[in-house]
Amino acid sequence: MQNIYWGFAEKGKEEEQTLLSLSKGRLARIKSCGHVSPPGYWYDQEEDEWVMVLGGEGELEWPCGGKKRLKAGDWLFIPAHQRHRVSYTSSEPPCIWLAIYGNLKMEDSSCTEK
Known about the structure:
The chain is mainly beta. The chain has no helices and 8 strands.
């Protein structure tokens, strides 16, 4: 048995760990402690992403100006190639994300670029 909140290597360091590899995707947990995307950097991923905050808080931002603050229990879906960035994560407690990457079929819950 393992625990989703335990077993991170270093305190204060951002970490991502694959928990489960799928035939066309993966399940990962991410710990962020005040970490944000570098200025001007936008994720543009090849895969869809479903992300949930398990602890702490995080905020995602889109080029269209939209922002979503996520607290423990909140989740959203980000389609492949929808540019986004992390604009805030709590440090105490750390923001613990659970993410599924792959070819997912869900309704878009974020901001659509025009």
